Amino acid sequence: MLNRLKLAAKILLRGEPQKKNRNPIPAITAEEVAEARAFFPRDKFFIFGHARSGTTLLMRLARLHPEVHCNYQAHFFTRKPLLKSLVDSPEAEEWLTRKSNRWNQGRDLSPLVLRATADFIMERDAAREGKMIVGDKSPSSIIHGQAVRDMHAVYPDAKMICIVRDGRDVLISERFRNFVEESKFLTSEDKRIMSDLRLDPIPFSDGRRSIFTETFIRRVAKDWVKDLTETEDEGRRLFNDHYFGMRYEDLLSQPFDEMSKLWKFLSVKGIDPALDKVLRAEMSTNPDEEWQSKRNEGIASFLPKGQAGNWTRLFTERDKAVFKEVAGEMLIRWKYEQDLNW
At what angle do helices 55-62 and 255-265 cross, to 10 degrees? Predict the structure, then answer.
Protein backbone atom coordinates (compact mmCIF):
# COMPACT_ATOMS: atom_id res chain seq x y z
CA MET A 1 0.00 0.00 0.00
CA LEU A 2 2.84 2.38 0.86
CA ASN A 3 4.53 1.75 -2.51
CA ARG A 4 1.27 2.43 -4.34
CA LEU A 5 0.82 5.71 -2.49
CA LYS A 6 4.38 6.74 -3.37
CA LEU A 7 3.82 5.90 -7.06
CA ALA A 8 0.53 7.83 -7.09
CA ALA A 9 2.28 10.83 -5.52
CA LYS A 10 5.04 10.74 -8.18
CA ILE A 11 2.48 10.61 -10.97
CA LEU A 12 0.60 13.56 -9.49
CA LEU A 13 3.80 15.60 -9.24
CA ARG A 14 5.63 14.51 -12.42
CA GLY A 15 3.03 12.88 -14.65
CA GLU A 16 3.11 9.37 -16.13
CA PRO A 17 6.64 7.95 -16.62
CA GLN A 18 7.66 7.98 -20.29
CA LYS A 19 9.21 4.98 -22.06
CA LYS A 20 12.32 5.88 -24.03
CA ASN A 21 11.91 3.11 -26.62
CA ARG A 22 9.07 0.99 -27.83
CA ASN A 23 9.22 -2.79 -28.02
CA PRO A 24 9.79 -4.31 -31.49
CA ILE A 25 6.74 -4.02 -33.73
CA PRO A 26 5.31 -7.55 -34.03
CA ALA A 27 4.84 -9.21 -37.40
CA ILE A 28 1.31 -9.67 -38.63
CA THR A 29 -0.17 -13.11 -37.91
CA ALA A 30 -1.77 -15.47 -40.41
CA GLU A 31 -5.13 -14.85 -38.74
CA GLU A 32 -4.69 -11.08 -39.07
CA VAL A 33 -3.71 -11.45 -42.73
CA ALA A 34 -6.95 -13.34 -43.37
CA GLU A 35 -8.92 -10.64 -41.55
CA ALA A 36 -7.21 -7.87 -43.55
CA ARG A 37 -7.87 -9.62 -46.85
CA ALA A 38 -11.57 -9.84 -46.02
CA PHE A 39 -11.64 -6.04 -46.22
CA PHE A 40 -8.88 -5.54 -48.83
CA PRO A 41 -9.04 -8.60 -51.12
CA ARG A 42 -6.71 -7.55 -53.95
CA ASP A 43 -3.47 -9.48 -54.40
CA LYS A 44 -0.40 -7.30 -53.67
CA PHE A 45 3.10 -7.21 -55.09
CA PHE A 46 6.14 -5.01 -54.54
CA ILE A 47 8.88 -4.21 -57.07
CA PHE A 48 12.34 -3.77 -55.57
CA GLY A 49 15.53 -2.84 -57.38
CA HIS A 50 18.62 -0.69 -57.02
CA ALA A 51 18.19 2.90 -58.24
CA ARG A 52 18.71 3.29 -62.01
CA SER A 53 17.94 -0.40 -62.62
CA GLY A 54 14.71 -0.18 -64.60
CA THR A 55 12.13 -0.25 -61.83
CA THR A 56 10.18 2.60 -63.45
CA LEU A 57 10.10 0.90 -66.85
CA LEU A 58 8.98 -2.36 -65.23
CA MET A 59 6.20 -0.56 -63.39
CA ARG A 60 4.99 1.06 -66.63
CA LEU A 61 4.97 -2.29 -68.44
CA ALA A 62 3.40 -4.31 -65.62
CA ARG A 63 0.29 -2.15 -65.49
CA LEU A 64 -0.37 -2.53 -69.21
CA HIS A 65 -2.05 -5.84 -68.42
CA PRO A 66 -5.82 -5.35 -67.94
CA GLU A 67 -5.76 -7.13 -64.56
CA VAL A 68 -2.70 -5.40 -63.07
CA HIS A 69 -2.25 -1.95 -61.58
CA CYS A 70 1.06 -0.57 -60.32
CA ASN A 71 2.07 2.83 -59.03
CA TYR A 72 5.31 4.09 -57.61
CA GLN A 73 7.43 5.62 -54.88
CA ALA A 74 5.26 4.88 -51.87
CA HIS A 75 8.48 3.74 -50.16
CA PHE A 76 6.53 1.78 -47.58
CA PHE A 77 9.69 -0.18 -46.72
CA THR A 78 12.55 1.31 -48.71
CA ARG A 79 13.11 4.94 -47.67
CA LYS A 80 12.75 6.65 -44.32
CA PRO A 81 10.56 7.57 -42.52
CA LEU A 82 8.96 4.26 -43.70
CA LEU A 83 5.48 2.89 -43.16
CA LYS A 84 6.38 1.61 -39.69
CA SER A 85 7.10 5.15 -38.48
CA LEU A 86 3.32 5.52 -38.07
CA VAL A 87 3.48 3.29 -34.97
CA ASP A 88 7.18 3.30 -34.13
CA SER A 89 7.07 5.26 -30.88
CA PRO A 90 6.49 4.45 -27.20
CA GLU A 91 3.35 6.60 -27.27
CA ALA A 92 1.87 4.66 -30.21
CA GLU A 93 2.72 1.35 -28.56
CA GLU A 94 1.11 2.41 -25.29
CA TRP A 95 -2.06 3.44 -27.12
CA LEU A 96 -2.28 0.34 -29.32
CA THR A 97 -1.53 -2.14 -26.50
CA ARG A 98 -3.37 -0.41 -23.63
CA LYS A 99 -5.35 -2.94 -21.57
CA SER A 100 -8.35 -0.63 -21.43
CA ASN A 101 -8.38 -0.52 -25.26
CA ARG A 102 -10.93 -3.25 -25.85
CA TRP A 103 -10.34 -3.20 -29.63
CA ASN A 104 -6.92 -4.82 -29.45
CA GLN A 105 -7.97 -8.15 -27.88
CA GLY A 106 -4.84 -8.16 -25.76
CA ARG A 107 -2.44 -7.79 -28.71
CA ASP A 108 -0.49 -4.90 -30.23
CA LEU A 109 -2.63 -3.45 -33.03
CA SER A 110 0.43 -1.99 -34.81
CA PRO A 111 0.75 -4.55 -37.64
CA LEU A 112 -2.94 -4.18 -38.49
CA VAL A 113 -2.62 -0.40 -38.56
CA LEU A 114 0.32 -0.68 -40.98
CA ARG A 115 -1.42 -3.25 -43.16
CA ALA A 116 -4.69 -1.36 -43.35
CA THR A 117 -2.89 1.88 -44.23
CA ALA A 118 -0.90 0.42 -47.12
CA ASP A 119 -3.84 -1.70 -48.31
CA PHE A 120 -6.12 1.31 -48.53
CA ILE A 121 -3.57 3.46 -50.35
CA MET A 122 -2.99 0.80 -53.01
CA GLU A 123 -6.52 -0.53 -53.33
CA ARG A 124 -8.04 2.94 -53.68
CA ASP A 125 -5.93 3.44 -56.83
CA ALA A 126 -6.62 -0.06 -58.15
CA ALA A 127 -10.36 0.33 -57.64
CA ARG A 128 -10.35 3.47 -59.79
CA GLU A 129 -8.64 1.47 -62.55
CA GLY A 130 -10.96 -1.52 -62.12
CA LYS A 131 -8.05 -3.93 -61.49
CA MET A 132 -7.71 -6.71 -58.93
CA ILE A 133 -3.90 -7.10 -58.71
CA VAL A 134 -2.02 -4.11 -57.37
CA GLY A 135 1.57 -3.28 -56.54
CA ASP A 136 4.06 -0.56 -55.71
CA LYS A 137 7.52 -0.02 -57.12
CA SER A 138 10.05 1.72 -54.90
CA PRO A 139 13.82 1.50 -55.48
CA SER A 140 15.58 -0.21 -52.59
CA SER A 141 19.06 1.33 -52.68
CA ILE A 142 19.45 2.34 -49.05
CA ILE A 143 17.94 -0.13 -46.58
CA HIS A 144 18.65 -3.39 -48.44
CA GLY A 145 17.77 -6.58 -46.53
CA GLN A 146 15.89 -4.78 -43.78
CA ALA A 147 13.43 -3.48 -46.36
CA VAL A 148 12.60 -7.07 -47.34
CA ARG A 149 12.19 -8.10 -43.70
CA ASP A 150 9.93 -5.11 -43.01
CA MET A 151 7.81 -5.95 -46.04
CA HIS A 152 7.45 -9.57 -44.96
CA ALA A 153 6.38 -8.52 -41.45
CA VAL A 154 3.37 -6.70 -42.96
CA TYR A 155 2.84 -8.62 -46.23
CA PRO A 156 3.93 -12.28 -45.83
CA ASP A 157 1.25 -13.15 -48.40
CA ALA A 158 2.41 -10.66 -51.05
CA LYS A 159 4.72 -11.27 -54.00
CA MET A 160 8.14 -9.70 -54.31
CA ILE A 161 9.82 -8.77 -57.60
CA CYS A 162 13.49 -7.80 -57.85
CA ILE A 163 14.89 -6.32 -61.07
CA VAL A 164 18.66 -6.19 -61.55
CA ARG A 165 20.73 -4.20 -64.02
CA ASP A 166 24.40 -4.52 -64.92
CA GLY A 167 26.15 -2.52 -62.18
CA ARG A 168 28.45 -0.86 -64.69
CA ASP A 169 25.48 0.71 -66.46
CA VAL A 170 23.92 1.53 -63.09
CA LEU A 171 27.12 3.40 -62.28
CA ILE A 172 26.96 5.43 -65.49
CA SER A 173 23.26 6.20 -65.15
CA GLU A 174 23.72 7.35 -61.56
CA ARG A 175 26.65 9.55 -62.58
CA PHE A 176 24.73 11.32 -65.32
CA ARG A 177 21.70 11.80 -63.12
CA ASN A 178 23.94 13.60 -60.64
CA PHE A 179 25.43 15.68 -63.45
CA VAL A 180 22.06 16.57 -64.97
CA GLU A 181 20.64 17.58 -61.60
CA GLU A 182 23.94 19.26 -60.65
CA SER A 183 23.65 17.48 -57.33
CA LYS A 184 24.68 19.26 -54.15
CA PHE A 185 26.82 16.21 -53.39
CA LEU A 186 29.17 16.83 -56.32
CA THR A 187 32.75 17.45 -55.20
CA SER A 188 35.07 20.03 -56.75
CA GLU A 189 36.66 17.23 -58.80
CA ASP A 190 33.22 16.07 -59.95
CA LYS A 191 32.42 19.60 -61.11
CA ARG A 192 35.73 19.85 -62.97
CA ILE A 193 34.95 16.59 -64.83
CA MET A 194 31.46 17.85 -65.67
CA SER A 195 32.86 21.15 -66.97
CA ASP A 196 35.45 19.37 -69.15
CA LEU A 197 32.75 17.05 -70.47
CA ARG A 198 30.69 20.01 -71.59
CA LEU A 199 33.68 21.59 -73.35
CA ASP A 200 34.90 18.48 -75.15
CA PRO A 201 32.95 15.21 -74.80
CA ILE A 202 35.02 13.18 -77.28
CA PRO A 203 37.79 11.98 -74.91
CA PHE A 204 35.09 10.82 -72.49
CA SER A 205 33.30 8.78 -75.15
CA ASP A 206 36.16 6.57 -76.30
CA GLY A 207 37.77 5.46 -73.05
CA ARG A 208 40.58 8.04 -72.88
CA ARG A 209 39.13 10.05 -70.00
CA SER A 210 36.92 8.88 -67.14
CA ILE A 211 33.65 10.47 -66.12
CA PHE A 212 34.22 9.07 -62.62
CA THR A 213 36.37 9.62 -59.60
CA GLU A 214 37.65 6.44 -58.00
CA THR A 215 35.74 7.34 -54.83
CA PHE A 216 32.47 7.45 -56.78
CA ILE A 217 33.07 4.07 -58.44
CA ARG A 218 33.88 2.38 -55.15
CA ARG A 219 30.91 3.88 -53.31
CA VAL A 220 28.27 3.07 -55.93
CA ALA A 221 29.68 -0.37 -56.73
CA LYS A 222 29.85 -1.31 -53.05
CA ASP A 223 26.24 -0.20 -52.50
CA TRP A 224 25.12 -2.11 -55.61
CA VAL A 225 26.73 -5.33 -54.37
CA LYS A 226 25.36 -4.97 -50.85
CA ASP A 227 21.86 -4.18 -52.09
CA LEU A 228 21.69 -7.07 -54.58
CA THR A 229 23.15 -9.57 -52.13
CA GLU A 230 20.86 -8.74 -49.22
CA THR A 231 17.73 -8.15 -51.28
CA GLU A 232 17.98 -11.39 -53.22
CA ASP A 233 19.07 -13.52 -50.26
CA GLU A 234 16.32 -12.24 -47.97
CA GLY A 235 13.75 -12.29 -50.75
CA ARG A 236 14.36 -15.95 -51.53
CA ARG A 237 14.56 -16.89 -47.84
CA LEU A 238 11.34 -15.19 -46.77
CA PHE A 239 9.14 -15.37 -49.88
CA ASN A 240 10.29 -18.61 -51.52
CA ASP A 241 8.10 -19.17 -54.59
CA HIS A 242 6.59 -15.71 -54.06
CA TYR A 243 9.95 -14.20 -55.07
CA PHE A 244 10.69 -13.33 -58.71
CA GLY A 245 14.11 -12.14 -59.91
CA MET A 246 14.74 -10.72 -63.38
CA ARG A 247 17.33 -8.77 -65.37
CA TYR A 248 16.72 -5.39 -66.98
CA GLU A 249 18.69 -6.39 -70.08
CA ASP A 250 16.42 -9.39 -70.69
CA LEU A 251 13.41 -7.11 -70.41
CA LEU A 252 14.87 -4.86 -73.12
CA SER A 253 15.73 -7.70 -75.49
CA GLN A 254 12.57 -9.82 -75.12
CA PRO A 255 9.89 -7.72 -73.43
CA PHE A 256 6.86 -9.92 -74.19
CA ASP A 257 8.54 -13.11 -73.00
CA GLU A 258 9.80 -11.50 -69.79
CA MET A 259 6.53 -9.74 -69.02
CA SER A 260 4.58 -12.92 -69.73
CA LYS A 261 6.68 -14.69 -67.07
CA LEU A 262 6.05 -11.84 -64.67
CA TRP A 263 2.30 -11.69 -65.29
CA LYS A 264 2.02 -15.46 -64.84
CA PHE A 265 3.92 -15.08 -61.56
CA LEU A 266 1.27 -12.53 -60.53
CA SER A 267 -1.43 -15.11 -61.39
CA VAL A 268 -3.27 -13.19 -64.10
CA LYS A 269 -6.07 -15.10 -65.78
CA GLY A 270 -4.82 -14.66 -69.33
CA ILE A 271 -2.21 -12.95 -71.52
CA ASP A 272 -3.35 -11.58 -74.87
CA PRO A 273 -0.63 -11.87 -77.58
CA ALA A 274 -1.66 -8.37 -78.70
CA LEU A 275 0.10 -7.06 -75.58
CA ASP A 276 3.41 -7.60 -77.40
CA LYS A 277 2.71 -4.59 -79.62
CA VAL A 278 1.44 -2.56 -76.67
CA LEU A 279 4.64 -3.28 -74.71
CA ARG A 280 6.89 -2.22 -77.57
CA ALA A 281 4.94 1.01 -78.06
CA GLU A 282 5.34 1.83 -74.37
CA MET A 283 9.06 1.09 -74.50
CA SER A 284 9.53 3.48 -77.42
CA THR A 285 9.00 6.40 -75.04
CA ASN A 286 11.27 7.42 -72.18
CA PRO A 287 9.80 10.07 -69.83
CA ASP A 288 12.99 10.13 -67.77
CA GLU A 289 15.08 10.97 -70.84
CA GLU A 290 12.68 13.76 -71.77
CA TRP A 291 12.84 15.15 -68.23
CA GLN A 292 16.64 15.08 -68.16
CA SER A 293 16.84 16.84 -71.54
CA LYS A 294 14.66 19.66 -70.26
CA ARG A 295 16.73 19.90 -67.08
CA ASN A 296 20.21 19.93 -68.63
CA GLU A 297 20.23 19.17 -72.35
CA GLY A 298 23.97 19.61 -72.87
CA ILE A 299 24.90 16.85 -70.44
CA ALA A 300 21.81 14.68 -70.98
CA SER A 301 22.36 14.39 -74.74
CA PHE A 302 25.77 12.76 -74.22
CA LEU A 303 24.32 9.50 -72.92
CA PRO A 304 21.65 7.36 -74.65
CA LYS A 305 19.18 6.64 -71.84
CA GLY A 306 17.95 3.23 -70.88
CA GLN A 307 20.28 1.29 -73.16
CA ALA A 308 22.29 -1.74 -72.17
CA GLY A 309 26.07 -1.73 -72.52
CA ASN A 310 26.86 2.00 -72.36
CA TRP A 311 29.75 1.07 -70.08
CA THR A 312 31.64 -0.63 -72.94
CA ARG A 313 32.44 2.69 -74.59
CA LEU A 314 32.66 4.90 -71.50
CA PHE A 315 34.76 2.87 -69.07
CA THR A 316 38.50 3.46 -69.02
CA GLU A 317 40.91 0.67 -68.10
CA ARG A 318 41.18 2.15 -64.61
CA ASP A 319 37.37 2.20 -64.28
CA LYS A 320 37.25 -1.48 -65.23
CA ALA A 321 39.96 -2.42 -62.74
CA VAL A 322 38.31 -0.60 -59.83
CA PHE A 323 34.81 -1.90 -60.56
CA LYS A 324 36.13 -5.43 -61.07
CA GLU A 325 37.85 -5.30 -57.69
CA VAL A 326 34.68 -4.23 -55.87
CA ALA A 327 31.87 -5.90 -57.82
CA GLY A 328 33.36 -8.37 -60.30
CA GLU A 329 31.98 -11.42 -58.50
CA MET A 330 28.46 -9.99 -58.50
CA LEU A 331 28.62 -9.59 -62.29
CA ILE A 332 29.39 -13.30 -62.51
CA ARG A 333 26.61 -14.20 -60.05
CA TRP A 334 24.03 -12.49 -62.27
CA LYS A 335 25.63 -13.87 -65.48
CA TYR A 336 26.81 -10.55 -66.86
CA GLU A 337 30.29 -12.06 -67.14
CA GLN A 338 31.64 -15.61 -67.06
CA ASP A 339 34.84 -14.61 -65.26
CA LEU A 340 36.96 -11.57 -64.40
CA ASN A 341 38.68 -11.40 -67.80
CA TRP A 342 36.76 -8.53 -69.32
Answer: 70
